[in-house]
Structure formats: C-alpha cells, structure tokens
Amino acid sequence: MTVKFGPSGNSKSFYDEGFKSSVDMPKWLKQKGLDAYEYSFGRGINIGVETAQKIGRAAAENGIALSIHSPYYINFGSKDPEIKEKSINYLKQTIILADKMQADRVVLHPGSVGKNSRDEAFGNLVMSIKQAIDLLKELNLYGKIHICPETMGKKNQLGTLDEILDICQIDETLIPTIDFGHIHALGRGAINSKEDYEYIFNRVENALGRFRLDNLHCHFSRVEFTEAGEKKHWTFTDTQYGPEFEPLAQVLAEREMSVRIICESRENMAEDALKMKKIYNEYITKLN
Ligand SMILES: [Zn+2]
C-alpha cells in the first residue's frame, strides 16, 4: 500500500499539448507517473453518461484511482425544504454518474451556516447526511461509493475538522476529505510543522480509527487567506503561501499511510502532484 497522487481537474499543460477531452486524462496521468484523478462537478454536472463511462474505462485501464467532486452549490446547512431537496438531488445525480465513471469517492462540501446558528446548520447537515446514506443503500452503492465530507476554509462554511469528524462518525462508509490548505487558511496559518500534521492525523485516528486514517482522502495546495479564511489557491512555486508539503510527506512515510492526495494548485495541479510524489518517495527511500 502506498500514497496515491493526482490532480483535481486538468493541468494547463494537458491542453497546451493539444488534448481536449478528459477521456484522455487517465492515460496522460499514467504516462506522467501519477495514480489518482479528481473530476469536478463543482460548477455543474455537465457530463453525458457516455463520456462518464469512457473516462471510467480509461481510469480503470490506466490504474488511476478516480474521485468525483460534487457541485459547490449543494448546501446541507440550509433548513429551507426546497434547498434541502435540490441539494440531495444534486448529490444523487453526482453519485449515479460517479458509478458510471467507476469512481469510488464523492467529495462533498457540507454547506454554509447562512443565517442559522452554527448548531442549527450542523443539525440540518446531520439529517441530510443520514438521507444521503439511505440514498446510497437505495441505489445499491453503499460500500462501493464513499461520500467524503471536506474540511472547509471559510468561517461561514460548515466543515471544521471537528465537524467533519463528528459527521463521519454517523456511518463508517463516510471518509473525511482533509483539505490541508483549508485547515491552514481557517486557522490563519495553522499548519507550520510536522507536529501540526501529526495532530490532525491523531485526531482522525482517535475519532474514526486506523482504517479510515489509512484511507483518507486529502486535498493539498498552497493557499492565501484573510481574516475570513481561504482566499485563493496557489502553486508549489508560490512559496510565500503555506502550508509546506515536506513535513506531511515525512509523516505519511513514517506512518506507512496509504491515503489519496489530490493536488488543487492553480493550473499546474498535475505537475505539483508529481512534485509531491517525488518528495514522498524520497522519504520512503530514506526510511528503507
Ligand atoms: Zn473541495
């Protein structure tokens, strides 16, 4: 078992090389030496069943672990019945297409606090997550597709590390998405050392156990933040922004974890994912 690395979406270089369709991404990624890919429905679910199946087949053929990011406009923090119903329907569409793509993970932004109290919004989220688990069972996809609620970077969003761990305790099929850039931004520069990464992993292990720690879904990028939290994602060369990947690579190697790390750098996500993989492999070599 080893850590898998890949990009969120398609690098600028993929298009610069003349490629147009994400169907070609899995092969392109394998040739680069990567082993994961996150396809985003963030701004909308705009993929046909046939293309979804083609991407899924290409991912399987090239040994690329595929995850899908559900739409950003899903909001399980709301108490508005219409928003709740729309949100669960967007998630349903995402899950059905994820299955066509042979993806095993669906990343989810939990929603916003809005005008509710944080406790109320969290209560709404709990109800919707239970509904989502019933949905997986109805679709016969429980255990096959894992919903991965994400730690968020802005104060007005649900998704602190505590909230994500609480949510994932509802059912063992839920896998947290630990977005290190978001945790760093929400804590206004919270991740500065190997110990800071170890603290996060210890919290996950204590709340959810070793199996889910080992199978975590992770997002990584350098991130700019303000008082309100996350502002903008940057690349590996924008070293004025944290967090640093080196200490994370060290912890991953020492703990022999097999998490999946999706790079969310701007434009250079595949290139940066490869940089991460190289750094991680250096630590693995050092330890052996
Ligand atoms: Zn996300």
Describe this structure in words.
By secondary structure, the protein is an alpha/beta fold. Strands 1-10-7-6 form a 4-stranded parallel β-sheet. It has a 4-stranded parallel β-sheet with strand order 2-3-4-5. The model has no long low-confidence stretch (mean pLDDT 94). α4 crosses α5, α6 (161-168) packs parallel to α8 and α10 (246-254) packs across α11 (269-287). The longest helix has 21 residues, at 118-138. 45% of the residues lie in helices and 15% in strands. The protein has helices at 12-16, 25-32, 49-61, 81-100, 118-138, 161-168, 180-186, 194-208, 210-214, 246-254, 269-287; strands at residues 4-7, 36-40, 65-69, 105-108, 146-149, 177-179, 217-220, 222-226, 229-234, 260-263. It has a single domain (4-287), classed as TIM Barrel (Alpha-Beta Barrel), CATH 3.20.20. It has 11 helices and 10 strands. Bound molecules: zinc ion. Its EC number is 3.1.21.2. Keywords: Endonuclease, Hydrolase, Nuclease.
What topology emerges from the helices and strands here?
Blueprint (H helix, E strand, L loop, with lengths): L3 E4 L4 H5 L8 H8 L3 E5 L8 H13 L3 E5 L11 H20 L4 E4 L9 H21 L7 E4 L11 H8 L8 E3 H7 L7 H15 L1 H5 L2 E4 L1 E5 L2 E6 L11 H9 L5 E4 L5 H19 L1
Parallel strand pairs: 1-10, 2-3, 3-4, 4-5, 6-7, 7-10
Antiparallel strand pairs: 8-9
